[in-house]
Design brief:
Chains A, B, C, D, E, F: GO terms for molecular function: lyase activity. Chains A, B, C, D, E, F: InterPro entries: Ni_insertion. Chains A, B, C, D, E, F: This is Nickel insertion protein. The structure is a homohexamer of 159-residue chains. Chain A has four helices and eight strands. With 159 residues, chain A is α+β, with helices and mostly antiparallel strands. Chain A has two domains: 85 residues, Alpha-Beta Plaits (2-Layer Sandwich), CATH 3.30.70.1380; 63 residues, Roll (Ubiquitin-like (UB roll)), CATH 3.10.20. The first copy, chain A, is globular, with a radius of gyration of 20 Å. Strand 5 of chain A pairs antiparallel with strand 5 of chain B, so a sheet runs across the interface.
Chain lengths: 159, 159, 159, 159, 159, 159
């Protein structure tokens, strides 16, 4: 069963925004990342860096549609300690994505699949669902992952 | 008291220069960073990376005005071991900056403030001054920072 | 088919040896790691660190039987640039290990399995074999891994 | 108002447990960390490392009371992919801790304070509470932190 | 003796391709890097990052001629677990390169030299050759490097 | 000319002290490292780590004689934000060290040499001196290093 399909495409209107932080409480980072995702960031990640005078710093990276530049800047300037933000133009090539359900001993679970030129190249169990099953059924998370992957592969063989 | 004011602006003529270093004495890094700052780099930072054959390397990054590309290249080629430099075009959005003096038990100290669309969004004690006070008065650096920040906040409330 | 079995055990005579390197050509690291493994190190790994004056450094770590301390020191002092080595006492709890062969479309391949208190808790395809199959049959490495894991799981279900 | 007080003390029965992971899905890390905390770990953290053949790995670290070694091992062996765990003996010096409430524009909030030889040396707003206030009142998290810290400092001056 | 010479030049048709990996077996990384080099990548390196939910991830970076974008994408989509690749335009300034042979106690060995505006700015012994000599003659690798560098410097003085 | 000689020895009374910092301004790190060195630390270094809730943290490490534990704790508790310090016992094997002067085009410069069982295994130009020469004579730092190393090697050959 497939209940979602996005076409493979290239988006040329993306920005990578970066801010170097060397004087910010690292405790705030996950809060800020969540807020940027909430406001529409496609991806947010932090790169550990070494800044001037050997300071251990963090480079905040935000991948976002060019149209949302202002919104992201508002969050970064208000929530971090940076005095400047730089951004560069980027293109994103995204695979077609499909969510499929596979049977497992704990009921049907979702697999996210990626297609390149019509061919299945990626598949991954949905983390949130597997985590929930692992907690509920007291089974190691890796066992849940293995079982979902095995069942997805079986299903592919039959189809 | 305010004794400096730079307007908020966007600079579209910036470059991010990068050189991957996998065969250089890491001891030289801070010297090279200082030299790049001296010659006009806006920012310099190092990213720990893993290069081919699993070598732990360093990616040197220089943020600089496009007009200074040649000067930066001269430093990087003469001081590091790289055989190539790559660069990408970037825009920088910089806040309006203001330096204010606040009273503290150890005399007046400077706070650097940042303004986004006319609104105060950042403020930070000047590291060098606080470091000097901490050494001179034998007081923890974090206590100096806290005191400067508290006094800046009090002053803002009154104004 | 099982052709090897080591008992689960705890070894209390292990050392963790550490040397901080801030002035060594990183290009030499993999050579040095290989040499330490050749001389009997149980594990060797490198931790990126920040040393005095903000130098990006590497902490070399060697896990080894206490009886081989001298041999490891000879390699580290002769091959790296350190002037000192520190070491701490450690215990190692190692799982029982078993190598099993599973059938795959590319012939039988090896899985390394780990047992804790008699129960299977780990299994992993042998990297070298999978890498060879991936190259020889022009198939993605991850596909080889998935297939080996799937077949191992099937076999477990039947037994 | 103080509603909790733990004495400053040294605990000599601690272990630092370590497992190097070079073949595990990094997606599972936070789940595993949470589980170790749930079972009584004092601290859990991950160190990015470079392992043999230049593999980017993670060293899982667990700080725990020696009496809980077995419980931690059960989690690590069942949830990660490691075939071995090493551990070293450690002592922990912990400050006296006190939770105090301070008034803020958003109501009373908690500050965790640390005392060394009877003297206040640390204080920090409780992250969870500040995060909640920031979301509820649509105010930057750093503003909440600053306000809590300022009020705690004021209160200290008066007492 | 010089047996190769490439002119110093700037190449404006380069791409930096990036894929963030937070759910991939790190064991596969060196295999994938090798494959990208085989298919024509100019450079490949991995940056340790922190992704959403605090996951330790890896950012794969590929520097490549714009004309090889499709080939690189095929490798990345088939061999990694990413659902998207981003790329940015970059220019590369590459030094003139020359390979010279110098006499050493173990026979002639190669030095790679780099020239900026006609002036020698870099020179480095060839790793593979030095590694082989170190193994064959049971001499520390750093001694081989030092000897090659010393002989190259002597030769430069005389010429 | 040799003007200093320390014997090769093993010191079994060392401690490795560690404090995890996830809520401290990284700007303070180098100040704190300097202070610990001033008070007698043998080595101080920082390891980038990932802490609970995916926070990017720093693990401060201090290598110090067991007799100075209290002094180091005073600095760490007063200058950082940690509520606890852990420490483990370690042994340090230190090479015999010798400082030698070698002639260079810029006058005599110092080389630090290390001896293992009476045999020269390490030598390194003194950073501070080379840095000063590089600045004064406007010559790349790496050229100064190369020249010092070459002259030291020549001298060794003759003696």
């Amino acid at each position: 069963m497939s209940f979602n399909h996005r076409e493979e495409h290239i988006d040329d209107q993306m920005l990578i925004m970066q801010a170097n932080l060397d004087d910010m409480n690292p405790e705030w980072v996950s809060y800020i990342m969540d807020k940027l995702f909430d406001r529409g960031a496609n991806d947010v990640y932090v790169v550990p860096i070494i800044m001037k005078k050997g300071r251990p710093g963090m480079m905040l990276n935000v991948l976002v549609d060019a149209g949302r530049l202002g919104e992201m800047e508002d969050v970064i300037f208000s929530e971090t300690t940076t005095l400047g933000i730089r951004y560069i133009h980027a293109s994103c090539h995204r695979l077609a994505r499909d969510f499929e359900r596979v049977d497992t001993p704990w009921g049907p679970l979702t697999v996210k699949a990626g297609y390149h030129q019509g061919k299945l190249v990626q598949f991954a169990p949905e983390f949130k669902e597997c985590e929930q099953i692992a907690k509920q059924h007291q089974v190691p998370l890796k066992v849940v992952y293995d079982e979902v992957r095995r069942n997805f592969m079986e299903k592919q063989k039959l189809s």
